[in-house]
Amino acid sequence: QMHLVESGGGSVQAGGSLRLSCVASQFHDYKNCMGWFRQVPGKEREGVAFIEFPGYGIYYADSVKGRFTASNDNAKRAAFLEMNDLKVEDSAKYYCAVRPDGWCYERHLKKGSESEFTYWGEGTQVTVSS
């Protein structure tokens, strides 16, 4: 059973930065897709960014392109999401998730893709104030 430990998040003013981290206890398969979804109460969960382990594929939602940067440390099974120029609309609970035995695809940014992700973190709150 894979466990995901998330850290980062918090409260910041618009224009500020935060960094999210997600570490997997283990990988069962050679290829994995790790990323973040976010959710606001009353709305559907949406894909934000995804990064491959190993591999080089990184995918971003249009709403965060140019502001968020995903990176990883394959040896540590860790992924990071650097969030810059944060906007009020970025406020949400961010969930780390892993899709085992598979790569990341553009479709994971679309609604309904969360069913492809087997392992989930508990989520971390990001609050951006104006």
Can you walk through the features of this model?
A hairpin with a 4-residue loop joins strand 5 (46-53) and strand 6 (58-60). The chain is globular. The protein has no helices and 11 strands. It is mainly beta. The N and C termini lie far apart (40 Å). The strands form 2 sheets. Strands 2, 4, 5, 6, 9, 10 and 11 form a 7-stranded mixed beta sheet that branches. The protein has a 4-stranded antiparallel beta sheet with strand order 1-3-8-7, with no helix packed on it. The mean pLDDT is 95.
The profile of the biggest β sheet is: 7 strands, mixed
Secondary-structure element string: EEEEEEEEEEE
Distance between the termini: 40 Å
Average pLDDT confidence is 95
Given the helix and strand composition, which structural class is it? Answer: mainly beta
Query: Approximately how much helix is present in the residues?
Result: under 10%
Strand runs, count: 11
β content, as a range? over 45%
The total of helices stands at 0
Radius of gyration equals 13 Å
User: What characteristic shape results from the CA principal axes?
Assistant: globular
Unreliable segments (pLDDT under 50, ≥5 consecutive)?
A: none
